[in-house]
Amino acid sequence: MVSRSADSSNGHGTSRVPASAAGSDPSRRTSGTVDAVSLAIIEQLQEDGRRPYAAIGKAVGLSEAAVRQRVQKLLDQGVMQIVAVTDPLTVGFRRQAMLGINVDGDLEPVADALDAMKEVEYIVITAGSFDLMVEIVCEDDDHLLEVINKRVRTLPGVRSTESFVYLKLKKQTYMWGTR
Q: What does pTM read for this prediction?
């Protein structure tokens, strides 16, 4: 759902706060507390990921240098990522799907194997009908079939999958990071 390339013109693109608050690297997780000023900075970047640090500083009451340091700390701690968010259709990915996956045994090795697949954009360990929910972005139906049938279903521990093919993306927002 997103392109992970940052804008190089001023060092930041669109801000995205990941669901796990640190991506898949547990060593980068924070204690879960972010102060009000850092939340205000995140909110500024979510409104416009290319907003200059000086403008952010003015909005939150800090100097440009202090904002730059805070943003770097938030990035280093894995609290947020700054990425260019794309519309998959416009960059050649015409098929998206959510997969519900049931696993026999330990979920972590399956989640780790899925994490290594470039087509997988999102992995959630869940409680309910499925053990894992996985978002996949592919070039077309043949690519999606290859990923599901030849790569996901053949992983050791995968018992079953159910595919939910996207017909239309109605809403995609990353503004939930500060509410």
A: 0.68
